Amino acid sequence: MNCNDPITVFIGGRELMNSAELILREFFGSAYRYARAVVDYGVGSVALAVINDSSVGATVYYKINVGSVRLCVIYYIAVVEGCRNQGIGKVLMSTIEEVCAVDSDVYIVTTWLGNELANRLYRSLGYVGYTWDELRRLIGRRAVDRLLKATCGYDDDIAYVKPIVSDSDVLGILKRVVEGNGNEVNRLWRETCLGVWLRIKAGL
């Protein structure tokens, strides 16, 4: 397969998850189950990159209101090994950004510091990275607690953020996640983050 051939990106839900799962499982191991959980829960969507009828990249993302902030959480992204560094990740990210732009305030994605492919990708697209400790100093502990629940980013070191409207004060926006009750975020966290963690820990 020529990874430089034209890419088609399909957007969907459960009907695309089986194809996406094969790609996510290869890169993330058992942690792919978190991605499946948000899709099964009904909040997550799938972006699947296809070249010549072969699935070459997948992303799971979702939109959620946290306080008075509308987040677009780009949850999991992976490209098959033979097609990495060919721009497929950028195509997936750009597609999701376009889908989310109409009704979101901030894009957010989390990863670990050693994931150099992802770190380079996000920076190249204008995302700014903050460690969770940096964010606690900048926007407050309560705001970070809500962001951790909204992204299930507990195992990650860094959050990359980008405002939908360029030049907006993204940190000022994120401070507003503490407004209102956190019921929607708490439900998502229990069903798709805590629940999956408990099942993995129990070997189920």
Question: In summary, what is this structure?
Answer:
The protein is an alpha+beta fold. It contains 8 helices and 7 strands; from the N terminus they run E-H-H-E-E-E-H-E-H-E-H-H-E-H-H.
List keywords for this structure.
204 residues, 8 helices, alpha+beta, single chain, 7 strands, seven-stranded mixed beta sheet
Task: Please characterize this protein's 3D structure.
It is built from 8 helices and 7 strands, in the order βααβββαβαβααβαα. It has about 200 residues and is an alpha+beta fold. Helix 3 links the parallel strand 4 (about 70-80) and strand 5 (about 105-110). The chain is globular and about 50 Å long. The termini are far apart. The model has no long low-confidence stretch (mean pLDDT about 95).
Number of helical regions: 8
Classify the beta-strand content into a percent band. Answer: 25-35%
SSE string, helix = H, strand = E? EHHEEEHEHEHHEHH
Largest sheet: 7 strands, mixed
Distance between the termini: 36 Å
Low-confidence stretches: none
Nearest-angstrom radius of gyration?
16 Å
From the spread of the alpha carbons, the general shape counts as globular
Strand order of the largest sheet: 1-2-3-4-5-7-6
Structural class of the helix and strand makeup? alpha+beta
What is the helix fraction of residues, given as a range?
40-55%
Let me know the number of strands: 7
Mean pLDDT: 94
